[in-house]
Amino acid sequence: MSLASRSVALTGLLTATVLLAGCGQLGAADTGSGRRAVASFYPLAWVTERVAGDDWTVENLTQPGQEPHDLTLDVAQTAALEQADLVVLEEGFQPAVDETAANVDAPVLDAASVLDLLPASADEHEGETEEEHAEHEGEEEHAHGDLDPHFWLDPLMVADFADAVADELGEVDPDGAQAYADNAQELRTELEDLDRAWTDGLASCERTTTVVSHQAFGYLTRYGLEFEPIAGLSPDAEATAADLAHLQELITEDGVTTVFSERLVSPKMAETLADDLGVDTAVLDPIEGLSDDTADEDYLSLMRQNLAALQQANGCS
After folding, report:
1. Is the Cβ–Cβ distance between 126 and 246 less than 8 Å?
2. Which H helix or E strand runs over 86?
């Protein structure tokens, strides 16, 4: 082989390696069936992997430690979408994924179309000026529209989504439909156990007011909690003077002991607010993705950590 031929071959090999390495984290190698699902961020990937079982490779487009809202697709990720047997996303959550997925041949399962999402909170900026309200409204409509996308913080909605994943996988692979349904049922049992733990664990608390970095926790209100966000649905939204004044008054009046930050976004706002009032800070994870600190965790363990943090902060017994 000539030197030029070897150079071409080596270039091709390196390109193929980069494409494979750039694909998701949950399954790095082809499985026996060769079927591949691509999910846009962690909760969707976790559910899909649990339901699909060992016969599928499930790839997560969002890298560990990356804020999923900020995702842009590189060549390898675009190729993964184009070559997938199933694409799993939530429309409106990651516009770059929506745009590319609209042009793929594979079936696309959109969580927003199979679940009844909650409306975005209408009163999270009560008391702000018209100009501040318009600014927040524009930020949040750009990010998510009129619905709250964070359904995965409700374990029972995750179970419903798992059923939808099983149905879609069964359409792609009818021979495996019963196995997918069984996997979804097994996952539902675990999620119902988690739901009971939350219900029982928050049944008796000294306070229910909970101050968080951004309005990602609306689906937890059914456990009796009231969330007060520093910012709105978009995690990079800026808090206004009216937001901060309202929260300072609320923390003092309700005896709030803790301001919660998150792992994938800067804790600066939460820490500043807590320091000003002499209260604690802690992490409440919206579980939009894993990080270096949570690489060995999964959705179930992170939800239990969140429960423990809320119990401590709100004086639950």
Report:
1. yes
2. strand 86-89
> Which two structure tokens, joined as six digits, stand for 274?
């807590």
The confidence score (pLDDT) of residue 235 equals 63
pTM, rounded to two decimals: 0.84
Cα separations (Å) of 53 from 165, 193, 317? 12, 21, 38
Question: Can you list the alpha helix ranges (DSSP code H) found in 173-240?
Answer: 177-201
Backbone angles phi, psi at 125, to 5 degrees: -120, 35
Residues 48, 25 contacting (CB under 8 angstroms): no
The DSSP secondary-structure symbol of 287 reads: -
Name which of 168, 210, 166 is nearest 184 in CA terms. 166
Residue 240's pLDDT is 85
- Edge to edge, the sheet with strand 226-231 lists 226-231, 209-214, 258-261, 280-283
- pLDDT at position 198 is 98
Rounded distance between C-alpha atoms, residue 232 and residue 144, angstroms: 11
| Tally of CB atoms within 10 A around 105 | 9
Residue 287 phi/psi, 5-degree rounding, is 55, 40
Closest CA to 133 of 142, 144, 122, 143: 122
Instruction: State the burial class of residue 125 (Cβ atoms within 10 Å of its Cβ: 0-12, 13-18, 19+).
Output: buried
Kindly tell me the burial class for residue 179, based on how many C-beta atoms sit within 10 Å of its own C-beta (0-12, 13-18, 19 or more). middle
- 140 burial type by CB count under 10 A (0-12 exposed, 13-18 middle, 19+ buried): buried
Q: How far apart are CA 203 and CA 65, in angstroms?
A: 33
How many contiguous H segments (helices) and E segments (strands) does the chain have?
11, 8
10-residue averages of pLDDT along the chain (317 residues): 45 42 43 86 98 97 93 97 98 97 97 96 47 46 71 98 98 98 98 98 98 94 96 71 92 97 92 96 97 95 98 97
